[in-house]
Amino acid sequence: MNAGSESDFCRQSQSSSSSLAWGAEVRVEDVRAWWWPIKLPLVSGGNNAAVVTNEREIYGEVEVEGDGDHAGRRKWLLRGIKARAQPGRLLAILGPSGSGKTTLLNVMAGRVEHGSSMGLLTRLGVEGGVLYNDIALAPQEVVGYVLQHDHLLPHLTVRETLRYAGYLRLPPSLTRQRKLQIVEEVIMELGLKDCANRRVGGDGAHGISGGERRRVSIGIQASHAPRVLFLDEPTSGLDSYTANKLVSTLADLAHQGRTIVCTIHQPRSDIFQLFDDVMLLSKGHQVYYGPAQSMLDYFQRLGYVCPTHTNPADYALDLIAIDLRSPEVERASYKRLAKLTAQYRDAQQQQLQQQRDLLDPGTAQAAHSKEARDHIFNQMKQQHVNVVVQMLVLVARAFKNIVRDKMVIMVRLIEALLMGVCVGGIFYQMDTDNVASLRSRSAALYAIVSLQPYLIMLATIVQYESELKVFSREYFDNMVGVVPYFMSMLLTSLPFSAVLPSVFCAIVYWMAGLRPEWEAFLWFLLIMTVMQYVGEALGYSCIALIRSFGPASLAGNSFATFWTVTAGFLLNPISFPIYLRYIGYTSPFQYAYAALAVVEYKDNEYDCPYPPENPLCLYFDGNYILSQQNLIFDTLRPNLLIVGAMAIGFRIIALLILVLFKRKP
Fold it and tell me: What share of the chain is helix, strand, coil (3-state, %, to 5)?
């Protein structure tokens, strides 16, 4: 490929008058993928179990590596896949569950790195070539990928969702008016005009239908004019009518010159008729690839005749599926599948000889030309939206989504009110003229400093569980970076982080009868606001690492409980085992409690019911009470600075987790 054609390749996707650019041919050359090591147990059934396992190994699904009953086994996910997806045609990848459909789609879309990547327990290996218009490049820049599940912000309208996607994906060289025009073209092409001003919904919020949500997900990927559009199970969860309508839309888009590839589990006959090309996979092997209308003729030539009035897709999938009803039937299924695979491989070789090799020497030279790849990459980099624009767009989008979520705002406001009333009611107007009431003040301060941040942590985990799924999708689509997203998350939370502690503190402080001075109240409010940030930061860290509410909240609960116990109020640190004694220094509750105690007791004289010269009046001296607290620091500044440093530190930890542990949605 010469330099001129390389420039055209990028320029078409940037300046096409259509919102979806012309398609690109995708060539898959001998792609292989595997997991290693895994522990595959033998199938139950006595001697037959060894026969079936042998059949798996002969067929190539499993290769044993090592000795003994617990030998590591390499499980093949894909074996020598060769195909091409062409512009103007809709290619459907069909196969039973576990056949490798999504793995192949991810490899074609560049969402799985070639070579070997280590996981916690297994290693994923990928080999082979994927070319886009005869160029070997990282395809994330030129493809759109629609996930099986829709991850969208529920309180934005369809038009707003697509506009924000356009601001993040379209080249900065385009004017704002042109970007809005492209979004309107996408809305019209995908049939979203009637619901364009309705909220997307989801996560318990009322909104558009499932089919319309799927079209919005397609529109997000279509907004940047991708050369190829990949879709993973686009009809999953949709009723038959909606599924047919969606695939019909995909077929129309493909016939306008786009390249569209989708996986689909078990399509109805009317949906199957919409496919131009079909690839059948089973246990990682190709069983058929070619025109959809020629599939039954191909199997008929092999001696497998589809009965009349039978869905061609159902017949083909039944033919290549592994029947597990008994070891004998399973063994027969593997043998039939091995035969079909070998027959297709022979037919494929003949076809390639008649046409040409998928990767001839001239193409290989152009594909692996460093100059060609660098030229394209440089053009792509020039079209990226800078981090400042990303952050501004994300802040505007997140703030609009949060403000419209009236239910969450009301719940968090009511939580602050109720918690303030409950704690304030328990410690209502504590006396100042008896020792027991003075001790209750310390208990009140500790309850305040430990309960409210804990609830804030849980609320943060709930809120950002769904939002992180949106971030993961956008990150792997090269729409946003980690730092712009994280900064936007912090900025949008600032107003709520200031208001909610104010509501809680205004109630609990005066109800409990704490030090009746405005300066003391303002210090109290500042400390609790910083602890709000600590609770949020801990929630960020837990959900960023685990990405699921149950385990993330369990991790947060564990940290909070541990810090509560080791903070020194419930138990004297001297009584701790030596290996736990110094861990209490990591507890933010310890320093926040110390700061509140300084605000409450420092230079404060309580009402001693005895004559001033009575030694018992010492117990009513705030400085004496403070000296008995076993505090690490008995002044305000170091405690407040440490709590503030922890609020910042936990946020940095959350940022590092997002950077180091990137999770695909």
Answer: 60, 15, 30
